[in-house]
Amino acid sequence: MDFKALIDNYSAAVLNTAVRILRDAEKAQDVHQEVFLEIWRRRHKYNGQTNWGAYLYRVTVRKAIELAKRPRMAALTEQQQDYAGTNEQPDGPLRAAELQQRIVESLAGLPERQADVFVLSRIEGLKAEKIAQILGCSQETVRVHLHRALKRLGRELGDYLGKD
Amino acid sequence: MNTHEQINEMLVDYVLGELSHQQLSEVETHVAECRQCSGEVKRLEALLECTEQMRELSADEQMMESAKKALFETIVTEQQKEPTPRPKVGRAIMWRIIMKNRITKFAAAAVIVAAVLIGISVFNFNGIPAWADIAKAFNEVEDLHMHMIQSWPENNKIQHYLLWQRAVKGRLETYHYIDGVREDEETVVDNGIERLTLDMAMKKAQLSMPSLPDYSELDWWFHFVQFGEAGGYEIIPLRSESSREVAVYKIDRVGDAKVLDGKLWVDTKTMLPQRFSYSRIKQHLPDNVYPVVTFTFEISYSYDPIPDEFFSTEIPEGFTELPRLEPFSLSGTVIDENGYAVEGAIVYGACLSIGSKGELQTSVTDANGDFVLRAVDETFSKRLPGFLKAFKPDDPTRVAWTLFEEPKAKEFRSDFGGEIPGDPGELKFVPAYLHLQGGIIWRSADGIILQMEPAAKVTGTVIDDQGDPLPDVNVGLGFVLTGEDGRELVAKEGDESFYMSLYMCLYRNLKLCGPQIRTDDEGRYVMANLPRLWKNCYHGPYFEKKGYVFVSSDKLKADGPLEDQIVNVQMRKEIEKDVTISGQGY
Q1: A131 to chain B, minimum CA–CA distance in Å?
Q2: How far is the C-alpha of B217 from the C-alpha of B14, rounded, in Å?
Q3: Contact: B35, A19; criterion CB under 8 Å
């Protein structure tokens, strides 16, 4: 596959994953750019056996979480509010956006594998089997990581998720 | 009945809906009563709900278009980025032909210039200088500046500057590499007395011996590069493109077409070349990562006087001086199985070098079993992995050997199933040079101990398709590392060990059989004194004869320690003329 074809085939997937994690068009584009630029710079090093789908999932999730670690994003623009949620009560979108932001920030503090599994499972909505294939581990490992990530996020985000 | 702690551990599965029927009712009962657990369930549910909303997001058309546009713009900008020319660095490298790495390509270019410039055929018609005159003028030049840009697809480049001066016997060269991964710059100054190599990025300087005794003759320099006298070029003046001031020639290599679309511009007053451009096809070796690519070369020349101080080997300010690079040598002792010195053993060494110059001089042990091996060509860098073996010519059943590897190599390759014998002594690594394509540069080692052990022998006969014996077939035995599955290790992108697996590919360049072996008049060959390697490596023997192709052979049994065996081979004449095809037996 040549580089152009790679972009045509995977651009949307990379952007979607990035925008789901970052909820920010500009940042998602940054991730998109970094991911593909890196491949472009290293293009001579690939030998035609790459599973691009899996590879791109891994690097996109990593880069997006990296980027989320950087300083808190500024106030959401209108467009981002559109992304942030629909059909909520009047204060819904903003509250949801705030919570999503907290979740992603917390992800950056998780062990990488846990964070990856969490994103692929909860945000991307992938099945354990697919995640195991992407990350090159067993489904059981995926399950354990997801379990731990949820436990930990539930604890860390207690205040934002609502008190009983 | 499960305890609170056990139930609490099940809450994640509960919210994910992954509990069995029985577990479900148990958890529900508990949660209804337990404030802590019901709180956690609520939080987890809120978390899942929130992330599900995130899942709804997707990029719109506009965003996709703008992301792609931004990406392509960045790539175009990167492609256009060219290093600033800087021929006046005031230092540089000796020009040596460090051949083995990317520099080689440049050297090959110089070579072709040579071929073109040194009278190959003479044309003489009105207004266009004769070739002999151009060659003569070029060979009488006192100072030469050459700037070459070598490009290959997607804008990877090597820029090379050469300053040469007859009076000083000096050369100053700068190489600037730009590839998709990084930029490197290296400068070498050689003034015939000593050589200074500068790593421009790391600001490191290293002195060493001058590369070759005499650079005083420019044409000799070109001849040195070997192609010069080869001939075989078709040179046609392009009258329509030529003017009174500039004559233009079309140059093509006849035959194997190594030079394509060559064009040379010559100043009709001075008879000196101004510019030369051509393309060349090259297939990368030794790994399969790189495809066949076409290189283009753009070379420009000028002949202004160069100040002598450009060829000074003083360490420039701001550079750290590394210890002087001493001539390469490997020294040690050969002992027998009882630890006694072996006299008269032949010691053969090879290290990696792309382009077959990696063999070391062969040595014979003295009465103390001692040997010293030197490089065949001092100026070629020695790269790991390396292989050393010693044997008595009258005893085909014994061999002493060892393998030099990069320390990290063991982490990446499969276990051989045994220790590498011998004590390879202390290796020094040359700092700062880690070239992906060429392994790791290493230096002298001493105190190497090689102990004799049982050896294997592979013999056989090579016949042609008529059943007649084939003499003068080159026979060799390589060394290919395999994974647990018995297949050759191949570099995989995105893999942390990518670099190392590339490195692993380099083992196959090591010749276990030792110096060149050919079949005799009866088509027979003997490869004796072979190390009995272990598992996880195979040793495909190869058979090469110009004009012949490999047809079939007995399979070499090498899944455990190598045993004595017979491998008979059949080859047939290649239909196309003048093409060497090598065959691989398994």
Answers
A1: 16
A2: 85
A3: no
Residue among A121, A135, A94 at smallest CA distance from B52:
A121
Residue range A147-154: mean pLDDT, rounded: 90
> Which residues 6+ apart lie within 8 Å of A2 measured at CB?
none
Q: A54 at the B interface (CB within 8 A)?
A: no
Write phi, then psi, for B155 (nearest 5 degrees): 65, 30
pTM of the model: 0.44
Residue numbers in A near B50 (CB within 8 A) = 96, 99-100, 103, 161
Cα gap B441→B434, rounded to integer Å: 7
pLDDT at B118 over 50: no
* Closest to B345 (Cα-Cα) out of B498, B501, B514, B464: B514
Residue B109 vs residue B557, higher pLDDT: B557
ipTM of predicted complex: 0.84
Contact B57 A20 (CB under 8 A): yes
Contacts of B75 in chain A (CB under 8 A): 37, 40
Residue B585 contacts residue B542 (beta carbons within 8 Å): yes
* A7 closest CA partner among B69, B180, B76: B69
Residues of B within 8 A of A16 (CB-CB) are 57-59
Q: Across the interface, do B50 and A32 touch by the CB < 8 Å criterion?
A: no
Of B486, B488, B485, the C-alpha closest to B501 is: B488
